Amino acid sequence: MRDYVNWLRHASPYINAHRDCTFVVMLPGEGIEHPNFGNIVHDLVLLHSLGVRMVLVHGSRPQIEARLAARGLTPRFHQNLRITDVPTLECVIDAVGSLRLAIEARLSMDMAASPMQGARLRVVGGNFVTARPIGVVDGIDYLHTGEVRRIDRKGIGRQLDERAIVLLSPLGYSPTGEIFNLACEDVATRVAIDLGADKLLLFGAEPGLLDGQGTLIRELRPPQVAAHLERLGADYQGELLDAAAQACRAGVPRSHMVSYAEDGALLTELFTRDGGGTLVTQEQFEKLREATIEDVGGLLELIRPLEEQGILVRRSREVLEREIGQFSIVERDGLIIACAALYPIADSDAGELACLAVNPDYRHGGRGDELLERIEARARALGLKTLFVLTTRTAHWFRERGFQPSGVERLPAVRASLYNYQRQSKVFEKTL
């Protein structure tokens, strides 16, 4: 119960942040077939109940393949895109129609003692996607395979305003009445861009983007994507990553890659500080910057436990407000997770590094080193020659980073006069 209460409390800032935001969610056909699909539906309903405006785009690749196999038809591809002739289009329409009905049925459930109880959702679809044929590429005619030409932004927006979930299939229609088979990733990306969505959420088999050793990459910015696309080649992770990057470059603030196979992956990504998938964002998720007056509350929360343990000298809110300009901080998605301060010492060419603190959940990540580098850079910019630090618990950490044992007598007179002999802090110095 305690874990549940703590989780809910820590999730509350995200509940507030996501309310009235527009999310475009892409779920491939493999995700619909997976045993975890029911849990994904429950999580989507939860998001809707928390005030998220939602467009759900579904895929249908494995379902199309099953229908082609049943009719003895051989799938044809060029450059990883399906060539859709008339018999294949019939299979596409059959698969997409069946999936759409199945998804609508799941979203219509209202069973007692289930997560769907009382949801009373309205699911809306329609001809919101106008398409055109891809045409002939490398001498290959893609026939009824198309690409998105236009999204009915106003029509979708009206349905979202009415609190409906908009369900889009990977089909588009031309002004001449033709039907085109589309890639669900392209539909989702274009919808997110044209709606000015707050998030594009892309489901895949993996937890997110994995590096060459199989380790999850938690955060990327668009300029970093090209190298991963080259490594991934035709892998489906590459398709998802490319879609995420395209959306971000076109103005969608954040794109997320999460697993359809992992129960609760979507909620973990959206309602926890570190998430569980891969975030692609124009802005750096974790920033090292100088503190402002708005950061005082977060700083107090960070340093209070260390003050209570006697590791840091107590600072009141008034003192922090007065000295906020001395602090550099590491901010992670709105939470201050580390800080350090530089105090130039009057009548000298020395400064003091003080109040270096890192949230226990984020230690061993090199953030202390980043802050030390920032403080040293600030000190050099001020023309300081020596950096002092007084510590009772972390002498070894500073020794490992070039600080040498010193003494009170080495401190400039102004600072030496304020030395607290009851704390018996050890004095270290470093030549800049």
TrEMBL record:
Cell location: Cytoplasm
Main location group: cytoplasm
Pathway connected to this protein: Amino-acid biosynthesis; L-arginine biosynthesis; N(2)-acetyl-L-ornithine from L-glutamate: step 1/4
Keyword Magnesium appears in the UniProt entry: no
Keywords: Acyltransferase, Amino-acid biosynthesis, Arginine biosynthesis, Cytoplasm, Transferase
EC number(s) from the headed UniProt entry: 2.3.1.1
Superkingdom of origin: Bacteria
Reaction catalysis annotation: L-glutamate + acetyl-CoA = N-acetyl-L-glutamate + CoA + H(+)
Record-annotated N-acetyltransferase domain positions: 286-421
MF annotations from Gene Ontology: acyltransferase activity
HAMAP family: N_acetyl_glu_synth
UniProt family annotation: Belongs to the acetyltransferase family. ArgA subfamily.
Name of the protein: Amino-acid acetyltransferase
